[in-house]
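Question (not urgent): is this output format expected?
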Amino acid sequence: MPTTVSTPCVATCTLDAGGRICIGCGRTIEEIGAWSRMSESERRAVMARLAASRAADAAATARVPARPARMREGAR
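Got this back:
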């Protein structure tokens, strides 16, 4: 028996500066509004896009070089 996809909502419902993407769950405003009417396959597609987006964000963050530690006073 297939499992029902639960909502990706994390109860941090705040839209980005453009008013299009929830910074809590990553869904578009259209996806949020349509969620209850979506089929399971549509919900799974949204969940897959969200997972791919999180993975891409994590990879981009990992590539950002760390700032060098300041040298201790007197160290050369």
